[in-house]
Amino acid sequence: MGCSNITLSLPLLHISNHGGGGGAGEEPNILIKPTIPSYKWRLVISYDGTKFSGWQYQETVPTVQCNIEKALMRATKLERKDLCLVGASRTDAGVHAWGQVAQFLTPFNYESLDSIHAAVNGLLPSDIRVREISPALPEFHARFFPKSKIYHYKIYNDAVMDPLQRHFAYHYTYKLNAVAMREAANHFVGTHDFSAFANASNRDGVANPVKHIFRFDVIEMAVGVFELTYSFVQGPLLQLEVEGSGFLYRQVRNMVALLLHVGREAIPPEIVLKIMATRDRRELAKYALSTPPHGLSLMSVLYNEELLKPPPDSPPTSFGRYHTITHCKLPFY
């Protein structure tokens, strides 16, 4: 019972896929022929992926999509097959998100989105929150039309792990050379065939292994220290930020794994080019295994501005609402 045959009120569309995400590959281009009028809504979602078996719906295990669908079904009184919830990125089990984007359909319009926004968040578990709900154009598609996605991978590089970071950063006890990691990361930037950095998956379909990496930054995070005065010093936290047109299954975690071995000075930065040229995942396996999922977060999914314009006669975007006091409850003296 899925939403593979989506019908929308728009002209015939030729859809080309721009990438999976931190957990899945791409699918071939498809044609959608619209027949039934509907209203489309865009969600921006944040979640702690620790307790979930990834984004995508599964019948036997808890997933983020499953929880959001249940909340939307109660808030809209619609069936799952009618909502047709689609996420931009099918994140893996244990992967987090600050800016996952999704869409759903309703056969009716809303005058205001604040009420359904509050209702959905009230029905969700505390480790999932819808940050925004906005009206979307009929031609918008969360999964097929991103121009880029940004992922962060956090590494806690110290002998002793900070327990407050344990769910969101990978504890790595080898001392890392951030300069060497930056040099290696720069080799990923540009348009390349990333076959050597993709794990095989039965969800991949016929994924295109050629992707464009816009940037790959290695950032040494500062922390505040209070002695005689408050100051910032370099801390043990490394944040790897990568922006690309799309990513193959586990591509980001595999790239990070190789950078860690470069950072510990076990292999030179130029190894990236050598492995990439082979287009063979077995070559990467000689040097590094994939990093664990909990250090990875999907930070944002970016689209062309034209696709983000609101349709005519649509309600304003809801960013949530504050509680207000309408009458003063304190007595006057």
Automatic annotation (TrEMBL):
Pfam families: PseudoU_synth_1. One of its GO terms (biological process) is tRNA pseudouridine synthesis. Residues 45-144, 184-304 form the Pseudouridine synthase I TruA alpha/beta domain. Its EC number is 5.4.99.12. It catalyses: uridine(38/39/40) in tRNA = pseudouridine(38/39/40) in tRNA. InterPro entries: PsdUridine_synth_cat_dom_sf, PsdUridine_synth_TruA, PsdUridine_synth_TruA_a/b_dom, PsdUridine_synth_TruA_C, TruA/RsuA/RluB/E/F_N. It comes from the Eukaryota. GO terms for molecular function: RNA binding; tRNA pseudouridine(38-40) synthase activity. Keywords: Isomerase, tRNA processing. The keyword Isomerase applies. Belongs to the tRNA pseudouridine synthase TruA family. PANTHER family: PSEUDOURIDYLATE SYNTHASE, TRNA PSEUDOURIDINE SYNTHASE-LIKE 1. NCBIfam families: hisT_truA (TIGR00071). This is tRNA pseudouridine synthase. It comes from Papaver somniferum (Opium poppy).
